[in-house]
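Troubleshooting: if your tokenizer reports a length mismatch, compare your output against this known-good record of 135 residues.
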Amino acid sequence: MDEKDFDLFLNLAREKGVPQRLYLVFAEKEFATEDEILTGQASAGSFTIRPVMYTDKPLSKVSNFVEMLDESLQNGQHWDIVYVTAGEDKGITAEFVEDRLEHMVKRIEEGEVDLLVAFTQMGDVYRADKAPELH
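Known-good structure output:
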């Protein structure tokens, strides 16, 4: 199996020299409805991205993309894109973790994802500029 972009991200985080924590927000594509298309609010094939769940994990607990994918699908929640950031895992509080994840969710909902790395369910980098139109 080829190394996935997600696995390359993990390797870069491991090279930081200090323990890292991953922050993951899973999102799904919500395609435009027929009414939105007919009223001109959206075009056919366009979608919005809606966060559906999030979690954090010490980097040491995530071996590779396949492991993360399997674990994420165990709860039965569908997702299309996972947004990931990493940060130092030393001296952080549960409140800090929650605030960071909520901030990520807010950025995703507002379409301000330029500082987040996103991956598909195949482990490849998700590029919004290569995706169908967002509405």
